[in-house]
Amino acid sequence: MGPCPSKAGRDRLRQTLTALGAIPREIAQEMRARLSLRPREAWRHAHGLTLQQAADKVNDLGARRPGEAVAADASLVSKWERWPAASGRRPTPATLLALAAVYECEVEELLDLEDRQAMPPGELRLLQRPHDLAVPVTSEALVRSAAEESADWARWAEASNCGETTVEQLVATSRSLARDYLTHAEPIRQFHHARQLRDTAFSLLKGHQHPKQTTDLYTVAGYLCTLLAWMTSDLGQMDDADTQSRTAWVCAQRADSDDLRAWVLSTRAKTAFWSGHLHAAVDHAQHGLAYRTRGTVSTLLACQEADALAQLGAAAQASTAIDRAARQHDALTGTDTIGGLLSCPEARRANYAAGVHLRTHQPEQALHAAQTALREPPHAYGTTAQLHICAASAHLALGAPDAAVEALTSVLDLPPEHRMEPVTRRLRELAATIVRTTIAESCPGRELRGRIEAFCRHSAPRLALSPDTLSS
């Protein structure tokens, strides 16, 4: 056999012959003669089918003819074509009949001399009387053929394109990524990493694996889309974040995972909040709280519900929700599947509490919550920055502008790549507050507003990104 021809070469030959009026039989003959293809491969290319498309047609045929069903996938079709080479697999008579029906040819046209020499004599005789395959007979060849078909299906069912180690590694890498995103110097690099991991999970799902592995892959793919959604909203791309969340929801439904459903809804609540859709944010948070979950997601959902309610002016309801978040945090059971970005430790809960206290006109409580959390080891640079902003806002409300300026020092020193959308939004809110204070027109007040404006102008969402960085 000569060297394997390129796809472009095969396509050109088929298109040229088709334009000249050749039928598939004549195209297959030319491909065998000119490109040294084996008969089954030549017939597939004569019809312009990929391995997977041929497998799909075989499976569709089996669905229409249950008594003659043959299970196939791309790998199996390739092995049928390579047989009797050592890397191939012998097609049974039923398989050859199915391929002949798909390619609209005679069974004999799918066999060459090598096939005939390697095929058991009983099967060759059976193929000379293909109608015998449709009626109950007791020939040794028919019984053996039926056994081969069952064995083929069992091998296909047991085959997997990933093992437990593959799934475990995807989960472990996702956990590292979610943790590193909170402290890593280059969050855009973490975004690219998450995207690559998602593509790996999606690619594996397009193959064949055991049902439990499929469920596990949908779960990790869903968490990766959730991470991408959260990162995307951090970069100010709310519509793209919602697209990622919708895909994550599909994965959560396929995996039937309440924990994943809750995290997807938490991410949608965040996106809705920063998009100004406050009622939708409340709805998403309450929907997520309806699921029985482990870990800290219920705490975060209650915090998000409180945050949106406070922004809507529903002070009493917001206070009730933020108190419930504290109780849920204290009654925590189980651990978060991914952690890091997809977790709600005490610092994150305290940040939401401080924000809710500010919006419900309780600056003393806001300052206490922020300062208490800042005394603990930092959870993430974004959370720490927002806690400092909350403290500064509380100081302004309490008439201590110098303390407010001091609280913002570390925030305004953040490098541009760490200036995510939630931080810049909080700072803009603070700048608007400064305008309404006694220091608005003072030199320190004007300087502070100028620094905030410069900070937001050189933020992560405004960094130069390649055109496809945030595509889904």
Keywords:
3 domains; disordered C terminus; 0% strand; mainly alpha; Serine Threonine Protein Phosphatase 5, Tetratricopeptide repeat; elongated; 472 residues
Concise structural overview:
69% of the residues lie in helices and 0% in strands. The chain is mainly α and 472 residues long. It folds into 3 domains: 7-158, no CATH class; 160-344, Tetratricopeptide repeat domain (Serine Threonine Protein Phosphatase 5, Tetratricopeptide repeat), CATH 1.25.40.10; 362-472.
Q: Could you explain the architecture of this structure?
A:
- By secondary structure, this protein is mostly helical.
- Helix content is 69%, strand content 0%.
- It contains 23 helices and no strands.
- The longest helix has 24 residues, at 211-234.
Number of distinct beta strands: 0
Say which CATH homologous superfamily of the largest domain is assigned.
Answer: Tetratricopeptide repeat domain
Percentage of residues in strands: under 5%
Poorly predicted ranges = 131-138, 464-472
Question: SSE string, helix = H, strand = E?
Answer: HHHHHHHHHHHHHHHHHHHHHHH
Q: Can you tell me the overall shape?
A: elongated
Biggest pleated-sheet summary: none
Helicity range of the residues?
55-70%
Second-tier CATH architecture of the largest domain: Alpha Horseshoe
Strand-pairing-aware structural class: mainly alpha
N-C termini distance: 43 Å
| Overall pLDDT confidence | 86
CATH C-level label of the largest domain: Mainly Alpha
Supply Rg.
32 Å
